[in-house]
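Chain A, query sequence.
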Amino acid sequence: MAARIPVRVSARRPEPGRFPDGGGVFAADPTVPAGLGPGFEGVGQVFLYANHDGVDGVIETARAAGVDRIVLLSCTGPLHRPRRSMSGTSPPSPVRH
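Chain A, predicted structure.
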């Protein structure tokens, strides 16, 4: 059996029930990188979503905490549903799985 790699997750508001139990979730705001340091301690790799405010501070904090590898993730589609399409009609609701 392969060894399990522990996973840590950050969220601005880690509400109960949104993530599996196990203590791997911590509150963090990527727009305030100074508060991210404790969450990076002992972490070797980070998957980081691009933020419209930038990621430089997050990357610097992660590197200072000893993170070896950072993968910058981005999205090729809209993050928010537009109010109206160009035709003037409301767009369909996104499919949720």
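The mean pLDDT is 76. The helical segments are 37-40, 56-64.
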